[in-house]
């Protein structure tokens, strides 16, 4: 990058001057030089404004232009111009045909955008702007065309040839090559184009749609992985059924293909009828995948499938509208998982995730609205804000309109906009029109960044038998948005009587900066259960007294708030202790003081057999170090680590007998099944093991080592390894060596092994991470490897990443700089942890800023990394 990258602004949107009716692509696949012929049937956009002119401008990057012809006449070099970003020429009229021939090099494509090689297969990733690395094209989502794709390739190395839509023709060619022609009848933007070619195994099944059509379902994987596709396939079928039942949406083609590849920048991609997945989110069998992996597979398979309607049939007009499809589709996959498993447990997971990933984003230098106003590199905006906060926005609409009103809005949206590229406003308008409501204020969630903070105060009037609840909201300034408006949010409230009985359950609408809500006929001072189910995605500044939190932990009918009360209590204790620790110079136990009341409440949760086990497992987990760091300024990573561990130790010590019982009662000798109930049992047992080991009693480290050795599934194996991982116990080295020997050849499974070591709190962790970079299974070219070793070190090991001597930052910065030349998109994503400098003490902040300066001084820094590093430095 020589000049500063251009800023793209939402307000500058203009409709495309030319549209494309039909695209015909011919690929001559070769690892080194792939030839791409593209025939485009172009028409001037009838809605284009005056002054659109007759200049045609196509995007294109990193490829060689072989030739261009208009209406079958080859253009001379003076009839077009081509540079590093694209191709321009003059339109001969209103409708015309363009032929473009380009050459690209899949094998040197380490950015994994466009056409690249993963293991030995060819595959593509075009969202957001990868198609322009395949051929010159108006690479924007509001240009939608039908695609016919011919793939020519070597028969031996590429027996499988896939693209979007239906297979129209296939056959042999000279020179041991063959071809396939794919036709996609649904007009689509270029970002949904996909091609796969390689020697892949295939697992087949089928689904009968509600109207009786049979859809062939295929999952393509590397040979040898055929026995790891069952769960993904089952998840796909359940997703298809759920979308019919809950949204009335049926699949629209006779086949649906999924391909799993090892090298992938993100989780997965919803290309029309040809989803491409990071193999990590497809492959699972009991001895290679944990319960968490199964859950993720289920939700990501569903997510990509749901995009067929929310994303593909109705897509985004421009990339500022990304949350139109992502927020909606995340909400859909969250609800699917809630229906498949436990609803409260799902909500707890989703909220924990939002707090761990989105709240820090909203409170830091990269804060942006759900619908951003500007970007330098759109790939940097596939964020927790666009996805998860976007989903919360849709959830609030659902809460406001009710399930039926929401569904009416959804029906109108798909009816009105099928086949179109639309905006977030169009979505909200459909919701408004179908329900005859005004969502103007709720829509501010699309445009206003930052997490609101709510305070509340209750006032009981015994004479009037009235309870008044005063609620106020405030959102702190974020970059570019100094002043904030009051947002509209639904707040679910419960009022509980002394005996635990529910007096009131009501959702109030907060629309003002400060507002009073009155509850009549209340006969006693109630305990307030505020923001039940996390009905609004906000922080709550009000501290409830500890005895009320204990009361709610035991009595709230809202399971989410039972969990939340435990989190709040634990947070309050730990924050107070962290402050004390800093004063008393490092005595974590002394800093905690007497925590008996808290632990007694934890015991009650542990032993409450009315609560399901997955819930209990979650409710017993203390808020994480990253979450605690967010609440402190400056955050002291060592203090946070010590205090949290000290509390874990006290819990483990005080509840040793109870956890030992839990551990032994939840042994299962049955064969592993990934269902929610069995997973909950394993999770509770793992929690018990964690606390037993935390007690410091050496016999339990032996127990963990034994669990590792005797495990008959990956969940139990990883649970044991996760606790051994921080110890000096000989079982640790033994288990890690065994793991490597068992799974050394298995790239997806080895990611766990790398990740664990990067997350260890042991003193030798950084040295070990450095060594592991030269492990034969590690490569900077594979994003999963980079994320599990390098990413996990920065994002899940605050104590070592923020080591006071700066060694963590230094190592990390070297990696970012190295990675930027290989894969800028992944490098940019990994840069965010350095941007948190404002949260730390002056010394750490100075070191982090120096690290960012070093990143920014890199010659030829990518646009991706530049945007994140420069915004983080500001
Ligand atoms: N649309 C995909 C999904 O949410 C994500 C693809 C993002 N890819 C990227 N390079 N930014 O499922
Ligand atoms: Zn998505």
UniProtKB/TrEMBL annotation:
Enzyme Commission identifier(s): 3.4.11.2
Molecular function via GO: alanyl aminopeptidase activity; metallopeptidase activity; zinc ion binding
Enzyme class, first EC level, given as a word: hydrolase
Record GO biological process: proteolysis
Residues covered by the Peptidase M1 alanyl aminopeptidase Ig-like fold domain: 450-542
Record domain Peptidase M1 alanyl aminopeptidase C-terminal: where: 547-873
InterPro entries cross-referenced by the UniProt entry: Aminopeptidase_N-like_N, Aminopeptidase_N-like_N_sf, PepN_Ig-like_sf, Peptidase_M1, Peptidase_M1_dom, Peptidase_M1_pepN, Peptidase_M1_pepN_C, Peptidase_M1_pepN_C_sf
Catalytic activity as recorded in UniProt: Release of an N-terminal amino acid, Xaa-|-Yaa- from a peptide, amide or arylamide. Xaa is preferably Ala, but may be most amino acids including Pro (slow action). When a terminal hydrophobic residue is followed by a prolyl residue, the two may be released as an intact Xaa-Pro dipeptide
Keywords linked to the UniProt accession: Aminopeptidase, Hydrolase, Metal-binding, Metalloprotease, Protease, Zinc
Start and end residues of each Peptidase M1 membrane alanine aminopeptidase domain: 231-445
Domain Aminopeptidase N-like N-terminal: 55-192
Secreted keyword on record: no
NCBIfam families: pepN_proteo
Function per UniProt: Aminopeptidase N is involved in the degradation of intracellular peptides generated by protein breakdown during normal growth as well as in response to nutrient starvation.
Family in the record: Belongs to the peptidase M1 family.
Protein name: Aminopeptidase N
């Amino acid at each position: 990058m020589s000049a500063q990258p251009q800023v793209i602004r939402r307000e500058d949107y203009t409709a495309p001057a030319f549209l494309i009716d039909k695209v015909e692509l011919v690929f001559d696949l070769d690892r080194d030089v792939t030839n791409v012929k593209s025939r485009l049937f172009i028409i001037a956009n009838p809605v284009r404004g005056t002054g659109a002119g007759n200049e045609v401008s196509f995007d294109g990057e990193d490829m060689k232009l072989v030739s261009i012809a208009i209406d079958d006449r080859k253009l001379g070099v003076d009839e077009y111009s081509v540079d590093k970003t694209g191709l321009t020429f003059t339109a001969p009229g209103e409708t015309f045909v363009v032929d473009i021939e380009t050459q690209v090099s899949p094998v040197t494509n380490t950015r994994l955008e466009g056409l690249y090689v993963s293991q030995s297969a060819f595959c593509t990733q075009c969202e957001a702007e990868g198609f322009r690395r395949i051929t010159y094209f108006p690479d924007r989502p509001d240009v939608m065309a039908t695609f016919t794709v011919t793939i020519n390739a070597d028969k031996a190395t590429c027996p499988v040839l896939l693209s979007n839509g239906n297979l129209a023709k296939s056959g042999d060619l000279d020179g041991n090559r063959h071809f396939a022609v794919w036709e996609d009848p649904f007009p689509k933007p270029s970002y949904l184009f996909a091609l796969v070619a390689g020697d892949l195994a295939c697992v087949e099944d089928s689904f009968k749609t509600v109207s009786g059509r049979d859809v062939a379902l295929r999952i393509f994987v590397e040979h040898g992985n055929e026995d790891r596709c069952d769960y993904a396939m089952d998840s796909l079928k359940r997703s298809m059924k759920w979308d019919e039942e809950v949204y009335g949406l049926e699949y629209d083609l006779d086949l649906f293909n999924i391909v799993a590849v090892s090298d992938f920048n993100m989780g997965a991609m919803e290309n029309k009828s040809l989803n491409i997945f990071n193999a990590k989110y497809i492959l699972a069998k009991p001895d290679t995948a944990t319960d968490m992996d199964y859950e993720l597979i289920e939700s990501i398979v569903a997510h990509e499938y749901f995009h067929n309607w929310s994303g593909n049939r109705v897509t985004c007009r421009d990339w500022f509208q990304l949350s139109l499809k992502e927020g909606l589709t995340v909400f859909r996959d969250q609800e699917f998982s809630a229906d498949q498993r436990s609803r409260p447990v799902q909500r707890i997971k989703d909220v924990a995730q939002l707090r761990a990933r989105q709240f820090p984003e909203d409170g830091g230098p990269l804060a942006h609205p759900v619908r951003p106003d500007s970007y330098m590199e759109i790939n940097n905006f596939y964020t927790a804000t666009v996805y998860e906060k976007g989903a919360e926005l849709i959830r609030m609409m659902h809460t406001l309109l009710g399930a039926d009103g929401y569904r009416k809005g959804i029906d109108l949206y798909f009816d009105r906009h099928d086949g179109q590229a639309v905006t977030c406003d169009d979505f909200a308008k459909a919701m408004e029109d179908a329900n005859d409501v005004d969502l103007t204020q709720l829509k501010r969630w699309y445009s206003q960044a930052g997490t609101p903070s709510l305070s509340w105060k209750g006032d009981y009037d015994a004479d009037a038998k009235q309870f008044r609840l005063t609620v106020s909201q405030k959102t702190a300034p974020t970059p570019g948005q100094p002043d904030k408006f009051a947002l509209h949010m639904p707040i679910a409230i419960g009022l509980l009587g002394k005996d635990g009985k529910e007096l009131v359950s009501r959702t109030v609408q907060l629309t003002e900066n400060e507002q009073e809500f009155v509850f009549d006929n209340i006969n006693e001072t109630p305990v307030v259960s505020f923001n039940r189910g996390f009905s609004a995605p906000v922080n709550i500044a009000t501290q409830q007294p500890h005895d009320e939190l204990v009361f709610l932990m035991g009595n709230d009918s809202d399971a989410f708030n039972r969990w939340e009360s435990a989190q709040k209590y634990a947070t309050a204790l730990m924050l107070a202790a962290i402050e004390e620790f800093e004063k008393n110079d490092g005595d974590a136990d002394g800093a905690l003081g007497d925590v008996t009341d808290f632990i007694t409440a934890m015991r009650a949760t542990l032993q409450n057999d009315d609560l399901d086990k997955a819930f209990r497992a979650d409710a017993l987990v203390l808020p994480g170090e990253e979450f605690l760091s967010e609440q402190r300024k400056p955050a002291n990573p060592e203090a946070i680590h010590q205090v949290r561990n000290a509390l874990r130790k006290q819990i483990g010590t005080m509840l040793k007998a109870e956890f030992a019982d839990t551990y032994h009662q939840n042994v299962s000798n049955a064969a592993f099944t990934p269902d929610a109930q069995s997973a909950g049992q394993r999770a509770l047992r793992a929690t018990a093991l964690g606390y037993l080991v935390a007690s410091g009693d050496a016999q339990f480290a032996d127990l963990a080592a034994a669990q590792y050795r005797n495990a008959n599934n990956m969940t139990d194996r990883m649970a044991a390894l996760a606790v051994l991982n921080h110890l000096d116990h000989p079982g640790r080295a033994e288990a890690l060596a065994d793991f490597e020997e068992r799974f050394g050849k298995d790239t997806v499974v080895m990611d766990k092994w790398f990740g664990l070591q990067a997350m260890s709190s042991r003193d030798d962790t950084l040295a070990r991470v450095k060594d592991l970079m030269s492990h034969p299974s590690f490569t900077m070219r594979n994003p999963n490897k980079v994320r599990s070793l390098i990413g996990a070190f920065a994002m899940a090991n605050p104590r070592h990443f923020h080591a006071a001597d700066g060694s963590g930052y230094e190592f990390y910065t070297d990696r970012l700089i190295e990675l930027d030349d290989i894969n800028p998109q992944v490098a940019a994503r990994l840069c965010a942890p350095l941007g948190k400098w404002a949260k730390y003490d002056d010394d750490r902040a100075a070191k982090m800023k120096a690290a960012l300066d070093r990143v920014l001084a890199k010659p030829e820094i990518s646009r991706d990394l530049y945007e994140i590093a420069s915004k983080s430095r500001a």
